[in-house]
Design a protein that fits this description.
Layout: E1 18-21, E2 32-36, E3 41-46, E4 49-51, H1 60-72, H2 76-84, H3 90-98, E5 107-111, H4 119-124, E6 130-135, H5 138-151, E7 155-159, E8 172-178, H6 187-197, E9 198-209, H7 211-221, E10 246-256, E11 259-268
Parallel strand pairs: 4-7, 5-6, 5-8, 6-7, 8-9
Antiparallel strand pairs: 1-2, 2-3, 3-4, 9-11, 10-11
The structure holds S-adenosylmethionine (SAM).
S-adenosylmethionine binds next to helix 1.
Length: about 270
């Protein structure tokens, strides 16, 4: 983790500033812990990844998906390649979303970065800036870090929940999310958090499978059983975007055989 990143971080519970503790030698912020004086909680930094969650404390779909990705992360790259094939390939499918970002050499946050499937395309841009990624799965982040280290891409990674981001308000020039929100435990909270950490005037981009595809995933994974009311809302979460947001739009994406397999929701935080 870059030393300068410390200035962006706060406690995900109470948003209090964090202090770096018990660093082991001159590791440049890759090992040690961050301490919240308000909650009296410590967050461990290991191999450059700051850990803001305890798997046991996660609830509902969040715990289920964290476990799922911890188990299957090593196959993510191949699964992505195969699942994007019908949509004209992974490059086409990902850039259909990523070209909407306003990078401007600023700070970019990917919420649910996974194993880093978007990094290739972000770092191809001369305007990539500083990239930060958060995910709920430790295995995904380990694989993402490995990819970043192998390719020489400087990415700061955080193990956390989209519903409680460990960043100070107005920190990022661009915030985006691809592929997880349909099944987040608290979608509204996650959207509010993306808005909170985005700089005023910046664009927020959120993409996932279409309602039809998500309903099939619910059936396939028998997700409705894991929710209290036995019903998973797979609708495009545009109704959860606060009315104060500007330039709200939803587009169908990943079109094959005349049908859209995904949606892209974008809007701007008022300046
Ligand atoms: C399909 S993968 C997409 C990964 C990456 N965005 C991509 O485009 O390749 C979905 C990711 O969402 C993460 N995820 C699921 N629920 C989450 C939550 N509540 N907060 C943060 N990440 C979450 C999973 O761990 C997984 O890595």
């Amino acid at each position: 983790m870059k030393r300068s990143t410390l200035e962006l971080l706060c406690c995900p519970g109470c948003q209090t500033e964090l202090t770096l503790r018990d660093e082991s030698g001159n590791t440049g912020g890759d090992e040690g812990s961050l301490f919240c004086a308000h909650c009296e909680r410590s967050y461990i930094i290991k191999n450059g990844i700051v850990n803001f969650i305890d798997l046991q404390e996660l609830e509902g779909p969040n715990q289920r998906f964290a476990r799922f990705y911890n188990r299957w992360s090593r196959f993510e790259t191949i699964i992505d390649r195969l699942s994007f094939l019908p949509m004209g390939g992974e490059r086409k499918a990902r850039t259909e979303i990523l070209r909407r970002l306003e990078l401007n050499n600023g700070r970019v946050l990917e919420v649910s970065i996974g194993s880093g499937g978007n990094l290739t395309y972000l770092f191809e841009s001369p305007e990539a800036g500083d990239i930060y990624g958060l995910d709920i799965s430790a295995a995904q982040l380990t694989n993402c870090r490995r990819l970043g280290t192998t390719r020489g891409w400087p990415v700061d990674l955080f193990l956390g929940r989209a519903e409680g981001l460990p960043f100070k308000s107005d920190s990022f020039d661009s915030v985006f999310h691809i592929g997880g929100i349909n099944f987040f435990s608290e979608k509204k909270k996650a959207i509010d958090e993306m808005i909170r950490v985005a700089r005023p005037g910046s664009k927020i981009v959120i993409a996932d499978e279409s309602e039809r595809v998500a309903r099939n995933v619910v059936r396939l994974l028998r997700l409705s059983r894991s929710t209290r009311d036995n019903k998973v809302d797979t609708s495009v979460p545009v109704h959860l975007v606060p009315e104060t947001m500007k330039e709200v739009r939803v587009d169908g994406i990943w079109k094959t055989h005349g049908q859209y397999h995904g949606y892209c929701l974008e809007f701007r935080k008022p300046g």
